[in-house]
Amino acid sequence: MNQILKTFILSPSDSMWLCYRENFKRFFEGRSPQFDAGIELIEMYQNRYGIFPSMDSLEKELTISGEMELLSFLQGVCSDPGVEIYPDTDSFVSGMRIIQKVTMEQDVFSQLAGFNNSLSAAKNTRFETVVDQVEGLMASLASVRDKARSDSQRSASALLFGPEACQEFRDLYTKNENLTLEGSGGHYFDLGIPGFESLQLKLGDLVTIGGFQSHGKSLLLRQIAYHLLTRYGLNVLFLSFEMFFNSVLAQFHIRHANNKMQFPGTPYVSYDRFKNGVLQEDEKNFLLGDASSDLVNNPNYGTLYLEEPCKGEYRVSDLLDKLRYVEDNYMPIHVVAVDYITLMHPFAQGSRAYEVRSAYNQMIKTLKNHALSHTDRKGARSPFLLISPVQISRHGLDDALKNDGKYDVSAIKDYSEIETSSDVILTTLIDSEMREDNKLRVQNLKYRDGKMVVDPKDFYCHFDRGGILSTIESRSQQDMIELIQRLQI
Amino acid sequence: MPNFDPNCTLCSETPGFVASELGNMVECTCVLKNLVLSYLTPVYANSKYMSKFNPVHIEGKNVWAVSKSSETFKSMIKSYLLNTGMRLKHQTTTPFEIINCFLGSGNDMERWRTDVLVILMGSDPPNKMYGTLLQNLIESRIRLGVQTLIHTKIPITSPGFVDTYSKSLSEFIRENFQRVDA
After folding, report:
1. Which backbone phi and psi does A225 adopt, to 5 degrees?
2. Assign residue A262 a region: left if phi > 0, alpha if psi is -120 to 50, beta otherwise?
3. Exposure of A352 by Cβ count < 10 A (0-12 exposed, 13-18 middle, 19+ buried)?
4. Which domain holds residue B170?
5. Inter-chain CB proximity B20 and A261 less than 8 Å
6. Cβ separation B24–A260 shorter than 8 A
7. Do B37 and B56 share a domain, yes or no?
8. Are both B20 and B81 inside the same structural domain?
9. pLDDT-based confidence at A184, cuts 50/70/90?
10. Beta carbons within 10 angstroms of residue B11's beta carbon
11. Would you state the pLDDT for residue A206?
12. CA Rg, chain B, in Å?
């Protein structure tokens, strides 16, 4: 929210003010008295003099009226280098949209957490009392919803979507049209996994990540997608058949907020605390303000397009339609990440095929062919990188566990086309001991373009930090206490 | 256990941080010491640390203590915060500061939404608003499931306490807080 104030004090724009004032004023009203007072002051100045106040004129105005606390707040906001100024309407709209959306999610989480606490703390467990509490929860959730809805009716820049909102997105994404891969240092990309740097990917490749259920396949997929997005500026179309759209988005935001190479000296943002709606002010401001807006607006990054498959039988044709739609309307796509491929419906519409395994193999082959032969909207060849996890059977897992936790390529034999079509095959494994230590083992089973990385490597999974994979362990609480006790503080 | 870095920048001129995506990992005692002191804030930095203090005694509970001096209480808080591995975010305040904040910026309860809120009572100028405001604040914290610790210099049933903070607050503390000796 402070970004909005700073923008209108230090770099105001008439059009932004006229189009969006009502929207952000109403949406954020009551969340921060100082923000409200700041906006009211700018509004008053605008009405009185027809111009935006400079910091100097605000200082005079507030000194005369004796509102020193507000003055020091505004001075703090304007002098804080960490508070971004939105340079144009695009970044303003997208920044505001992100803040609004996540703020609303926080509101919902807070309401639910408050309800949960009051329910568990209630001494009186009468049926009527519980019903009353549920009524209260529903009323408060309805007020969150109504606030979002009423904003969306007033302005296209609110939370929800409509033709105008789509146009804004379209304008924003048009910028991505000009994105070429020349600036990324060539056409080869590493996976962003320490120890696997020699595995170089290129557009048109198929990367598969094999693993048993809950063995970190999706986590590794997000890690690779995040790396390609931020390190190489590639545009990523991400489909998840397993997780809710908002959860995936939150994972990416929290993953980015906890990238301390990007944001050194900033607070950690805990995914658990986010889920429970108990982030503290500094964490919330950092997540919603700096980190989320950086992921959206940083010109060095690509754009993440999250597709929520809204139908039961999502086929390859649906994926290709969506790809075409996004490319025709928004931006070229360089990477398609599907979580995961075998959850797609393998039979074409109206097909009479009954052999499931061969249908899946055919589907994988089709996707690989499309990845290689894809053309952009002008008809030029424009291959994309396809990444997807695949499920390994319990039998395959058992074999790996008997073999010192190392998979053999036969573990993915259920779908022979994966072995044939994949350019890179990775596997993930978490045995019971590793699960206790929050560890995950990554192994390379195939690399078409060169020498495989022979030895599997173990990583620490920082689930609470958005799923960062690292060679460094988070210090446990017991370690920390032992260290402190040695310090003689 | 992580190794201490013998080449700490504070001990010699060689860099002592390991930069990583997870942040600057603390690998030497002096860096860790600074981190701990900064976590404690000046309020607790010089209080006595009881390394054997078992945090279970007050963990997750709303607790109040009465003593003429707050030093023992601060020592207990310091030991509690350190012996829970610095995972709890904390804030220490006085009723007077809470009133000032309330009058300055409206009903901004968000400001006090921390894991552990320590309220030092007993040196505040009288104000009729203490009772309602503090009770409201503590009730909202109880609903959120976060912990409040109170130290008073005088007994909460004494006329001095009741005159300053109200009878209702005195009763509220007695009903909702567990007394400890500090």
Report:
1. -60, -45
2. alpha
3. exposed
4. 47-180
5. yes
6. yes
7. no
8. no
9. very low
10. 15
11. 94
12. 19
Asked if residue A325 has a cis previous peptide bond (ω within 30° of 0), the answer is no
Helix count (H) and strand count (E) of chain B? Answer: 6, 5
CB contact under 8 A, B113 and A475: no
CB spacing of B83 vs A261 below 8 angstroms: no
Residues B33 and B52 in one domain: no
Structure tokens given for B90 = 């904390």
Q: Do B23 and A264 touch (CB under 8 A)?
A: yes
Tokens found for residue A397: 């897992």
Tell me: do B34 and B66 sit in the same domain. Answer: no
B62 in the same domain as B5: no
Q: Which pair of tokens denotes residue A302?
A: 């690509």
A424-429 vs A206-211, strand pairing mode: parallel
Tokens for A143, please give them.
């007020």
Are residues B174 and B95 part of one domain?
yes
Q: Flag if B145 and A117 touch (Cβ within 8 Å).
A: yes
Encode pLDDT of A242-267 as tens digits. Answer: 888 778 888 898 999 888 777 766 77
Residue A144 pLDDT > 70: yes
Residues of B in contact with A475 (CB under 8 A): 2
Q: How far is B86 from chain A (nearest CA, A)?
A: 8
**Chain B contact present for A72, CB below 8 A:** no
Of A261, A265, A483, the CB nearest to B21: A261
For chain B, what is the domain count? 2
* Residue of A29, A288, A478, A483 best to disrupt the B interface, most CBs of B under 10 A: A483
Answer whether B33 sits within 8 Å of A479, measured CB to CB: no
Shortest CA distance from B18: residue in chain A: A472
